[in-house]
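Last lecture ended with a question: if I hand you only a sequence, what can you say about the shape of the protein? Today we answer it with a concrete record. The protein is Shikimate kinase. Below, first the input exactly as provided, then the predicted structure, then a couple of comments.
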Amino acid sequence: MGAGKTTVGRTVARRLHYPFFDSDHELEAHCGVRIPVIFEVEGEAGFRDREAAMIRELAARQGIVLATGGGAVLRAENREVLKARGTVVYLRASPHDLWLRTRHDRNRPLLQTEDPKGKLEALYAERDPLYREVADFIIETGKPSVAQLANMVLMQLEMAGFPIDPPQPASTPAGESEPPAQDPNP
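The predicted structure:
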């Protein structure tokens, strides 16, 4: 949490001309309540069940950019779905950087403790090996801007053979007019 998955994911999606989805935001929209309320009512296990179902649903779509919640990798089924259905990018940040980015955010139930920095360090120790297990690429978030991080993601994808420039409609030579669009429902 706090690594920039949503912000960078949105930027990458825009550059690829793909729809963007954040599994946490989609889950909140589906349930009609914020994640802290789901945690409060159903506990972390209930939230993780809902999260896994949402990830399965979103990962079944073609041609999207998906940002998952930071704890999505805790479940083997999520790791398997993500690895099988897409290219996984791990935006890695140090626990200290994560703490600086999230310390004032009250919408993060796992950090509502006496020692949020210690909690982030424990979460990092548990999750980092899982992120590495599923990741096709690891991008260090450190100091780069969102645009620089998005460029790094796109460069990694391009080097792996991912088509970065979506096909553009054929242009009409100068001086010629395009034929009128056909009405699909005459």
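Comments.
1. The chain has one domain: 5-159.
2. The two ends are 51 Å apart (CA to CA).
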